[in-house]
Amino acid sequence: MSRTSDIRRRWWIIMAMVVAIAVGGVTYLGLRDGTTARQYAAAARGAQVMPFDLERTTHRFTKNRTGGEQTVVADDPSDTEQIRLIRQHLAKENAKFSRGDFSAPETIHGSRRAGLAELAAGYRRVTTEYADTASGGHITYTADDPALVTALHGWFDAQVSDHGGHAESGG
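Above: the chain sequence. Below: its structure as tokens.
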């Protein structure tokens, strides 16, 4: 092997090591706060679907015996812009859900997330109702069918998991 070939080979090895260390470092820094790659991806897709800022709002999913409630609030109750955007989005999504259109959650969470297929198929048997709250809004989901209640609960759990620090379970 010539000296030039040996230098090139060593240079490529060093560059490969630098890239590996850089990628590993970025991955470590990005995930050390406990956020998973799936949560980062959901947040990125969510930014395309939800007009409000995930860093300035919180999703809460509260289960009950007939379904549950999805609430989104501005972390700062005086943040009127985020409150307006939350209300606009949830009212629009409520109207879409009542027609069986779950395209926004599918975009964010994927079409195979727990409960989503069942909800899309049984949407006529799920009542949704939107209401403003002091610092955002909420959608109440009600179903008489135990399978749809289970689907709603699974869907809520999947969203809490995917939204990570931007969401919490209300019960």
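Residues 25-32 have pLDDT under 50 and may be disordered.
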